[in-house]
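Tutorial, part two.
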Amino acid sequence: MKRTTTHNVIMRFLLFSAISLLTLPTFSQQDPIFSQYMFNPFVVNPAYAGSRDAVSTVLLYRAQWVGLNGAPTTGSLSMHAPVKATQMAWGVNIMSDQIGPTSTTFVQGTYAYRLRLLGGRLSMAVRGGYFSSVYDKSTLDFDDESDNKNEGGAVRAGVPNFDFGLYYHTPVFFLGFASSHLNQPSFKFSDQTSLNGGTNNFEINMQPHLVLSSGFVFNVNDGLKFKPSVYAKVMQNAPLNVDVNLSLLIKKKVWLGISYSSDGSVAGMIELNATDFIRIGYAYDIWMTQEINRMSTHEIFIGYDFRFSKKTTESPKYL
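Running the prediction step on this input gives:
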C-alpha cells in the first residue's frame, strides 16, 4: 500500500513537470551556465538550502569556450545549512561572472522554510542580494583608433535582485522549480567620459529565468545506482533549453555522468565522494554546433559537508 501511494505521488509530480514545461513562456541566456547542476543544485535553486542536513560548502570554477577571446568564466562560492531544531534553512551565494568587457559580482542570501510532505520534504525559499557590474571599455579593440566610442575607462552599475524556489524530494526522487530576477533589475550605466563632452547612458535589463529540474534514482544492485535527470531553462526571446543527464553511482563513491543539451553541447562528468564529507567534481563540455564548433569547456568544484552528527545520510549522494 505504501509503495503504491509513493508511486502515485511520483507520477503526479512527473505529470506536473511535463505540464509546466509545456506552459512556460519562451524565455535568452543571461545567467551563468553550470554543467554539474545535479551535483550542486543550490547554485541554481535556493530552495535546495538545508537538503544535505549539513553545513554544505561548494567552491566552483568554470571556463567556457576555452581559446575564444572574451569567453565566459565563472567562479562561485556557496554555503547552506538547516537551522537545528527548526524547519528553516539559510544559504549564501557569492559569484563572479566575466564575459567580454563585462564582469558581474553577485552576493546573495537565502531563507528557506522546509516541511514534511507525502513521505518527502518540500522546501520554499527566497533569495535576495546585490549585483554589481563593471563594463571595462579599455578591453575593447577598435579597427579605427579615432572612433569616437574608443574612450577607454570603465563604468559601473549595481542593482538589487530577488529569486524564488521550490524543491521537493524523497530519498530517490526530486522535483525543483526556480525563478530568478523576479524584480527584473536593470543595470543603468552612465558614462561621463564621452569624448564629445556629453554623457552616454545605456542599460542592461535582466529578464526572469525559469528553471525546472527533476530526477529519479533506480537501485540497480547494492553497488550501483542509476539516476536520470532533466533540467529545463527558459528566458524571454530565446528557445527552451533542455539538458538531459544520465548518471551512475558506483559503490557509493564515484558518480559517472553524461549530459546532452539542446544548445548542441555534450558533457562528460565525474564526481568523487572522497570521504563522507569531501567531494570533488569535474566536467568537460564540447559544443557540436557549427557556430561554436568543438569548443571545449572545463568545470571543476570541491565540496565539503560539515555534519551536525556522525550519522550520514544517503539521499544527498543521490540528489
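The domain at 2-318 is CATH 2.40.160.40 (Porin). In part three we will examine how such features are distributed along the chain.
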